[in-house]
Amino acid sequence: MPTPLLKLSELAEVRSGYTFRGALEHDPSGDVRVLQIKDLRHSAAIEPDKLIAITWDARTAAPLLQHGDITVISRGDSNKAALYKDEEPVVATSQFFIVSAKKTNVLPEYLCWMINLPQSQRSLERSGSSIQAISKGALQDMMIPLPPLATQQKLIDLQRLWDEEDHLIARLQTNREQMLQGIYQHLIKD
User: How far is CA 27 from the centre of its chain?
Assistant: First the structure.
């Protein structure tokens, strides 16, 4: 039986992040962390302790990210997705779309992985002349193959192994460069 192909909107709810009025300034005693695009430029993970804190004083409850939510950068050349795995109170700015799985037959990790695949990224229509942006509709229309949960988990596990391998290779290269520098310094002194 072939793997069904579904629109993201059939598998998940897609909503916009929160629009803040005015500049955001860090408040060390703040009760809510704020996720901005700059926080995901060099990292693929949402790390609440590295985000600015604010004191939430709006009349409504903060639209907090929930464990398993996926943030997708809505502006710029890269519309990278990141999975929120924490429980800290974090609000994503309007620079993001938040994707929340609404079916039990799809893993949030799998959805995040699918959104980040190069072919998925290429399928997103971008508009704008100076700053590229994707629309909510373009994201909702992204086609997602939906294999069984066991296959989704195998794909996630395989990706984790590849990521770990990449990390180890980078560490080996750094160690090799340091070792070569040490050898060069030792030979120059002799």
Answer: 24
| Cα atoms in the 13 Å half-sphere on the side-chain side of 92 | 25
> How far apart, in whole angstroms, are the C-alpha atoms of residue 9 and residue 15?
11
Q: Residues 44, 159: contact at Cβ < 8 Å?
A: no
User: How does pLDDT run across 48-92, given as a tens digit for each residue?
Assistant: 999 999 998 877 888 999 999 999 999 877 789 999 999 999 999
Which tokens go with 8?
A: 């993201």
Question: Which tens digits make up the pLDDT trace of 18-51?
Answer: 998 888 889 988 899 999 999 988 778 899 999 9
**Residue with token string 């039986």:** 1
Q: What is the predicted pLDDT for the residue at 63? A: 93
Relative to beta strand 81-83, strand 52-54 is: unpaired
Separation between Cα atoms, residue 155 and residue 1, nearest integer Å: 19
Cβ(99)–Cβ(13) under 8 Å? yes
Which of 3.90.220.20, 3.40.50.720, 3.40.50.300, 3.40.30.10 is the CATH number of 5-147?
3.90.220.20
Q: Could you tell me the pTM of the whole model? A: 0.84
End-to-end CA distance of the chain: 70
- Report whether 81 contacts 70 (CB < 8 A): yes
